Structure formats: structure tokens, C-alpha cells
Amino acid sequence: MFLTATLPLLLMQQAPAGDIDWDKEFGVEEVERDPVTGEIPVEPYTKSNANAGATPFNSDAMAAHFGGRDGIERIADRFTDLNFADPRIGGIFAGHDEVRFRRTIFEQFCYILNAGCDYTGRDMQSSHAGLGSRKADLNAIVENLQQAMREENVPFAAQNRFLSKLAPMSGDVIER
Amino acid sequence: MKTALYPLAASLTVCSLGFMPVALAAKEKASDQQSIEQTGAPSVPFDEYNAKLLLTNAISAIDGASGGGISNWATIAGRQETRGIGVQAHVTAVLLPDYFYQSHGLAVGIADRVEFSYARQNFDTQDVGAALGIGQGYKLNQDIVGAKVRLVGDVVYGDALVPQVSVGAQYKRSLDGAVASAVGAAHDQGVDFTLSATKLFLSHSILVNTTARLTKANQNGLLGFGSVADDSYELQFEGALAYQFSRRFVVGSEFRSKPDNLGLGEDDWFDLFAAYAPTDNFTLTAAYADLGSIATFTGQRGAFLQAQVAF
């Protein structure tokens, strides 16, 4: 009976006008990418190589295994592409600034591999905070990095040596 | 007029309600595609990913637990991480000069935390059976049920100096109690306790495992447990050292010390193994195993072969 009485009301509902700016209605501010870097600005933080979460290798040998700075850049690019296209972890990367990720991950790799870069990104804990990453997500990321390194013909022992710098960061990355 | 409107209104509403889910679905699809354009992620339905890294579930030890071929490791069976239940099943054969050993079993790993395992061991004495007077081709059989819990650490991640540590217990029941007591064993069943630490040292691609085992077992339990003269638990050591050549290929060596309760000159075990994963779910292991003296027949060295499926 109640349903029958409310049906006309349902029918009489008007669709909202099409020209409403919903972002304005809900107070959503548009984020402007930096015209020079193409990155979305982030909250200010202290930049330091210590944020990379690992000490760099001492010699040039590792950088050589990775094809120098150019090789590291190709690996970081490929790693970024694989991660953002990976359905296993797509949910984690979906809300990320791909431009900024591509740059900071290259800097981090280049710094740790002692190829003459400084890392300007945030530290591992705050850059992974709230992502809700699990160990299996980390496994997927490791597999993507292994694929990127394999495609650049990095010897497996050198791949593992690099991973030995990254593996101890798991405590800052895994949240559940 | 009103009575005429109501049925019309009702039917229209029903119609519109009927279409609404379709409309919503279409809208959802559209927004999905939009987000795909933004993120570049393919439109594969999201099925929570929960798999371990290759080979980190190890192979199946002859006692049925996840480990090397002859040693127990701190690893948890099955290929599932913290949000799933993994399973691995294996068939093992060891071809020795005077014996043929075969075992098979199943191990379940829950949330990469707890492991339950079962193994059945069949040990064909071939001609030795006749020589010992128990019958030509007499088979010694044993059932093993095990449980293992990961206490701390991770075999791959975390501090390089903090290994994955697990404790375990294995209940072993020999199905040939008469033979066991004939050779002087005190019991036909027993429980082993293990404490294992395993770590893959990525900087050198080397995996190290150490296990302490409290046991009374004679030849792993196939010849019973303890002896009339010595029925106390003994602390034994198991070790493994392996080099990772690729994600799918590992070569290594194992050691397992054993008590000699029966005074038959029971030896420690060694092996050299190669494990290969042709697919993510399949692991093949071949080893050269030196099992020393078994029931006074010395020089038992031969091939260890195992096929394992894991999910």
C-alpha cells in the first residue's frame, strides 16, 4: 500500500539539470599538474638520499651490470609500465601519479646502484602509507622488477644483489 | 481518473525500475572504461592475487613437510600467501643399491603461517628382506602426520639477518611394529620435534637452512623408535645450502644427522640436489643421495627423484 502511494512520487521526480558542476557542489578542487615536470604537486617534505631506504653499492660494478644510467632508466621505465598495467596490483597504482613514480623510482634505483643520482622522493614509510599493501602485492612487484631486469639482460646474481637492498624495506611497505 | 492513472503509473514504474539496473550497469561500465583510460590498467576482473614467489614453498621432504629432500625447513607448504590456503602434493622415489624407497604425500599451508602434512613411506627391502629373514621384497611402511608453525621472519623479505623461523612436530607410526621390535626398537611410533631457521641471502643468491630435531627414530622411523637400551630423545641437526641460479632453478646440498639407537651403524645422510620449476605449479627435483648404512647394508648411495605440484 505504501509502495503504491509513493509510486507517483517516484514518477514525478525530475532528473537534475545536466549543467551542474558536481565538483564545485562537493568542493572538489581540480589538481593542476606542474607545467614543467607534468607531476601533481605533493605536500612539502625534507629531501634526502636517506629517504631511499638503502645505502648505495660501493663500486661501479653493479651499475655496469645494469647497463649504466641508460640501462637503469630503461629498467625503471619498464618496471613502471609493468606495474601500472598489472591487474594484480592495478588497484594500488591506480591512484598514483605515474609521472612522479617513474622519476622517483629511477632516482632511487640509480642512487642505490651507485650510478650518480640523488634520490629526491619521500621515504619508504610515508610513500607507501595507506596503500594497504600485502606481501603478495610485493611479490607481484618483485616479479615485475625481475622481468624488467631480465629484459635488460642483468645477470641473475646481480638482480638478487639489487633485491637484497630492497628486501629489507618490506617492513615499511607491507601494511596487512 | 485516479484509478486509471495508478495502473499506468505502476506499470511505468515497474518498467523503469526494471531498466534501472541495466542503466546503472552501463554507467558503471562506462566509468570503468574511463578509469582504464586514466590508469592504463587492462580490464581484467580483479581476482585478489595471493601467490608466493617461485620456489619459496620449497619441495617436500621425505617426512612430508615443506623443505629440502631430506631436511625439514622453516618454509610453509603451498603457493599461497597470507590470505589463502595453499596445497602441495609430491611423489618421491629413491633408487638405492639394495633398496627401493618410495613416498607420497600432501601438505597444506594456511595463510603462510601453519602447515599440516601427511606422508606415506614405502621401503622395499628387495633381496635384503630374504637375507634378514623377513621375506623377499618385504616392504616397511610408515605414516607421518606433521604440523608446523611459522613463528617469525620471512625467507626472502625483511632484515637479512632475521631468518624465517618455524617449529614443528611430526607423529610417525611404523606399520611394521613386529620388524621394529625384532631389531630391538622400543616403540613402533614416536613424535619428532623440529625447530628450523631458513633464509635466502639475496646478496649472494644463497639459501641457508638449519634445523634442530629431537627424535628417537631409527632410520627415520621405518625401523621403529628408540631401543630397549637407549630410549631417550636425541638432538640431531639438519642443514641445507643452496645456490639460486634463476627464479626457477636451484642447486644445493643437504645434511641430516641421525642417532644410532639400535647399534646397527646407522649413518648420517647427505645429498646434492637440483630443483627446477618448469611451470609455476610444478617442481622437479633430482638428487644424488648418500644414505650410508641401512640395516647393516652399507654404501646405500643412489638417485633421489621427486615430482611436486603446488597451488
From TrEMBL, chain A:
CDD domains: TrHb1_N
Domain of life: Bacteria
Any one Pfam family match given in the protein's UniProt record, by short name: Bac_globin
Keyword tRNA-binding: no
InterPro entries noted in UniProt: Globin-like_sf, Globin/Proto, Hemoglobin_trunc
Protein name: Group 1 truncated hemoglobin
Alphabetic keyword roster: Heme, Iron, Metal-binding, Transport
